[in-house]
Amino acid sequence: MKGWSNSETPGSSVMLPEKRLLAAVLQRAITDYLSGDQDVQEDSAQWLLDDEPSGSPLTFEFVCEALDIDPAGLRRQILSQRATLSASAVENGGITASLF
Asked: Fewer CB near the terminus (10 Å): N or C of the chain?
């Protein structure tokens, strides 16, 4: 994974195409978890929050490592955002999905 490290990429402000793709995958999973339909939220929650390797080459941990992101810290932020959105929906009388 060292070859994809931001610290080793010349001009690290420019992302390699592979990193942009991984960032898009991560962004989509977070968006789906926070605002998708029930089935989509469950699938994205499994990918984002599961610590067990799935055998898939694109695990959450792999993507985070490739993007130099702390997976535990990102998970905390995602769960915090989900809790904030859920509390806001309850205050506004909306229906919310349960936290995973």
From this structure: N
